[in-house]
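Project standup — Tuesday

K.O.: blocked on the structure for the chain from last sprint. Re-posting the sequence here as requested.
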Amino acid sequence: MAGAVVVVMSAELVVIAPYMRRAAGQLAHAQLTWVLPAVVGEMVSMMMFARLQRHALGTGGLRVRLGSAAATVFAGNAVGATLPGGSLLSITYRTRRMRSWGASASQIGFAHAATGVLSTIALALFAGAGHILSGDSSRLLSVAVRVGAICALTSTVFALVHHPAVLRRPVRALLHLLRRLRRGAGVQASADRMLDELAAMHPPARFWAWGLGLALFNWGGDFVCLLAVCHAVGASPPLSTALFAYIAGMTAASAVPLLPAGIGVLDATLVLTLHHGGVPISAATAADLLYRTITPGLVGVAGWFLLLQQHRRPARPQHVRESCDHARTVAATPDATAETSTVTCKA
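H.V.: unblocked you, prediction finished:
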């Protein structure tokens, strides 16, 4: 992977070297009054994603401080943006952090799935907004079909999850070989327990509404960053052009999750789409360079700093489930029975 990244970057440097020289001249005259809104927009985007993950974990009863969630998001972004493996490595890191907070496998799976679904729907809604701004309402039907398909698939999955008896037989078939290797029912017991925990989750409608709002602000803050850097280098693309360039770049980057920060793929898509919309190639390249300086540049530096701080100060078990407080209250009640006094919780 490292060799592939080096080859791609070398080829890109040879191709875009003439444009880079002209872009450097425009960067030297960038308007600092637009750089500050770009940085603020990116910080808002990161904080909204932290709130979204915290919101998803809270559905399973796990309470996480916003500061811890934000530090994990920044550090995960830094890991995914600078190491081969990209977003997959970032998800692995965030999963380990959730485990250290006491989250179960079902809570972690639900958090990743819910944030992925909500983020995909939010990006599709941004695409619909771009078609409306450009006056091309004929594409709205395809956007509506896409959103409807995602919602239908999510509803089907939740319907199956809420009936674990239907899933037990295929799960047991899939785990049959693994159970033989481990010589015990531990794997099956873990799978049954996870199915029961997932079935116990009943996120209300307000969870999806609030989560979709957080996902929209997450994408919106990042888009504001891109729009601000375009104005900073003297390019003033129409709002629909900038929005289409942003959506195309994010879609291209997600299609190659192993590349750190979508390096090369996102940049080429962003520059070419802006240029196709009427922005000079040098200005589009300068906007991309400034955008990437902020994310993953500044965000990555902050993330690695927070990651080093986490290793220097190991996290203590401060995140507990809501049921723990209730269990302690019941156990401390004078007339509590022997059965209720044995209630335990995982911190």
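K.O.: great, moving the ticket to review. The chain has a mean pLDDT of 78. Residues 281-312 form the longest helix (32 residues).
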